[in-house]
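Quick one: examine the sequence and fold tokens given here and explain what the tokens say about the fold. Here goes:
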Amino acid sequence: MTKQVWMIAVATLVMCGALIIAALVPTESSSKTGIGAPLLTEEPAETPPGMVWIPGGQFVMGTDRLPGPGQANVDHIKPDEYPAHDVELDGFWMDETPVTNRQFAEFVEMTGYVTFAERKPTREDFARSGVDVSRIRDEDLIAGSMCFKAEFDKDGLIRDVPGWEYQVWQVVEGANWRHPEGPGSTIEDRMDHPVVHVNWDDAMTYCKWAGKRLPTEAEYEYASSCGDDRKYPWGNDLLPGGEYQCNFWQGEFPVDRQNLDGHLTTSPVKAFPPNDFGLYDISGNVWEWCHDLFHAEYYSVSPRRNPKGPTTSYDPQEPGIVKRVQRGGSFMCNTNSCTGYRCSARMRGEVTSGSFHNGFRCVVDATMIDEYRAAQERIAAWRKTQVAAAPDAATPR
């Protein structure tokens, strides 16, 4: 997903050229063999508020169920989910929910931070993600973000081509985390919904403020699946007992938008049951940023223990554009094209881009305890000044 409509044309031009696969050099990990110190399974400190402990363990990441030529692909499994490979992870704490508007508002109030979608971007902003800035028009440099284009041309819709979904997206001027659908929309009644329209840098800045970090892709899949060979965070049936377990699109995407789960867009972060680890919205509602660069072929060389992703990014649909991993699916995922709510499903996002259906959550590992405590002490001290100035100011979250 990219921020500007003009990037469709950019991607098309790039794909017409030679596809040069980037070198797959993994980042450092604690072990490439799985041999070494025992995995961390017991909590090394008290669980931070609003987080849950994910005990270390081994699991099979990805899948070997990629259908062959001519075989039905009812789950819409993609080649980048292959091959399945063993991964070992040390334990970590993970936010029990995606970061909410309420939490993000406190961060903004304390720091004065302005998200990427709230300011007018420059060509230099896009250059660092690999975009050919010579193709960017002045009128394209607007403060805004990607939204669903409800009034798309249904009769002219072309499917079964790479990137066909771009036909139903549009950059909306003035769309940002405060105004999810653009000017005139508000989050006043959505403070417990996940924050959206945040790009990777926005998420990273919040994490640093809170003394946390983004999860690795491996950590996210392990937390989602609870280390089991399950299709969804709750099991192998999409609708066990006919009950919806997460927020996703009902009906044929994008032409038939139903509302059988009660939520057309984002939902409150605890509207659906948690998985066995106690994590809410680990599937559905919003796509969530991960730390890793995205590379379609990384799984073939991924280290076994604590993989942190490749050192280069490669998306065969838009080679040359730097992307980071997103996980978990969103309220736009569906049964006919994007089953992102599956545990092994992968997505990627251009690093400067946010959208109305992507957010994030944070993790803390054993090496970050001091950093986390120091950050929380700063936040607690700031909260005291707010309470002293106004008794009804922001309360601890």
About this structure: Helices lie at 6-16, 101-111, 123-127, 200-210, 217-225, 369-389. The chain has six helices and eleven strands.
